[in-house]
């Protein structure tokens, strides 16, 4: 493995012109394909196998004229304190606003509150439901402007008017967080390398790789049903690993140059060793992302596979484009002090002083460091026992958003459950008298504890299917609402007995409840799949049983601690104000799965890069304690820089208004902080110090069947093969005291 990649690096370095041109041609082809491809499809967030999805599909089949995914808005009119919306001037203004709403370009229909029972009992508020003839993602900014213009008519009359619903969701001015993150990454790289060229190279190559992968995804989006949302994780992770992988190759090249190797031999060894680690680190990320298929939600599977493509491109860029670009700037990529130094190995003494001091500290106190690290992570993980998953809606938005204010006004005037009605879909195809049977079910549902009211049933043209809304007494994210959905489903056989009918519970609230349950149930199988496969992969990489197990257990600790921190902030409200969290509630259902997939890949990256350098020193004859110190001296600074870059990337999203983005940003930043600095930089060396030679133990029978991949570059230390350079002798550092 190391020999093959070393030759690949040497080839890319020597043939740098054609290699760079080839990548530019790939970029041009991806640009042409992406720009000429059909428009990306809308999100299709189906949840196969759950009742709410089956009911949704039945609705589409039995009500062919119904646009199930059409955008909708709810416009709320609130009278001044002590007055009623039914008074003449307010009623006239509302009717004028409704008439104006109905004339919107994309509006299908508007329900007049005075004709559709949309006035609260005390007359303080009314609402008008607006249905568009396009999906929510297709509602244009002009249509939203027309809605606001209609609302101004009522505002001018003295009413408070707010609007919520799916049609009010608009794409924000994206890109700000990414620009800030890239700027912070550039600063960190500059501090790490002390060279503008060395700092810019990982950013440049990573951006090119992300452009290729994103444009290629755009080109095949229509054919494979990949929505715009599908590429979000691909872009985030592609940028993250693209910088990381290039960073490690460039760092190893600079190290070999400091030891006196010519540029071509330095890049050959860098790609052979660090490049091998990049390849296997990338493979662990691929495992984590492909494992999203275990969840059983098509959209998550597509997102995972799109991100896999981005990671594969990042690996190829690191192994080919990075050495080619280094060929154009073999000296400028070095720091000024290294360029001034002419003696071989002159910079070796000052290399990694911080990493060396930390390694020696851990070697002196491994039990204390291990105990403290486990206690800290264990304490942070305790709140996970109270984890609640859900899909917060407009109530999670800041009070500055009209959607949040509309939600609050509706809850105040009509009750908290009004914002999340349950839809009961009745299949009455076998009923002798469908209307009577449906009416009987509606009456039974209305009598269930927790149901405030039910709407009149609506039948399809064939008369064999009907649906009606049941308004809960509690909010959509309340645990009592989840219990109500369960009670309705449990009472199904009792309500439908002898009627020749059956019913299913769906609607946005029920879909969110089912989605949360499915994702929560998939967490353990997903973790078992990705961790199990990664343990097998690391077994091959490190030829050890204990190191893969230690890596997996460390990852589980850091993930549980990050989830616990997220529960403390977003669910319990600890320091919520500092992070702009205005409303606590359940953790969004998809966040843990996303976090586990992304963090697992990054955690295994750091594990491979750090421990592979220790193994490299070990197989070259150093004692375990010496190898640990050598690994930290060469890798700690780069791993810390990579972790800081990732934290900067993810932390930039914490202060976004969108609750999902905020949670993702916080959870990823916290997980990288805990995994890189507590697990990889503290627990890992402490465990290795205690294990000694046993850390690298592999039973003889297993040693004979496990393939040898040589990521530590042992083959590069032998006599040259063809044009492969021999590795010069490396000074062995003194043992730690």
Keywords, separated by commas or semicolons:
737 residues, Alpha-Beta Plaits, 11 strands, alpha+beta, 23 helices, 5-stranded antiparallel beta sheet, 4-stranded antiparallel beta sheet, 8% strand, disordered C terminus, single chain, Multidrug efflux transporter AcrB transmembrane fold
Characterization of this structure:
There is one protein chain. This protein is an alpha+beta fold and 737 residues long. It contains 23 helices and eleven strands. Strand 8 and strand 9 (465-472) form a beta hairpin. Helix 13 crosses helix 19 (546-571). The model is unreliable at 342-350 and 718-737 (pLDDT under 50). The chain crosses the membrane at residues 20-40, 179-199, 206-226, 232-250, 271-297, 303-329, 367-387, 523-542, 549-570, 590-611, 635-655, 667-691. Keywords: Cell membrane, Membrane, Transmembrane, Transmembrane helix. Belongs to the resistance-nodulation-cell division (RND) (TC 2.A.6) family. MmpL subfamily.
CATH topology of the largest domain: Multidrug efflux transporter AcrB transmembrane fold
Number of strands: 11
Distance between the termini: 36 Å
Helical content class = 55-70%
Mean pLDDT: 83
Find the CATH superfamily of the largest domain: Multidrug efflux transporter AcrB transmembrane domain
How large is the share of residues in beta strands?
Answer: 5-15%
According to CATH, what is the class of the largest domain? Answer: Mainly Alpha
What about the largest sheet? Answer: 5 strands, antiparallel
Determine Rg (CA atoms, Å). Answer: 30 Å
How many domains?
4
Query: Architecture of the largest domain in CATH?
Result: Up-down Bundle
Structural class: alpha+beta
- Please count the helical segments: 23
Low-confidence stretches: 342-350, 718-737
The geometry reads as: elongated
Membrane topology: Multi-pass membrane protein
Protein name: RND superfamily putative drug exporter
Organism: Kribbella caucasensis
InterPro entries: MMPL_dom, Mycobact_MmpL, SSD
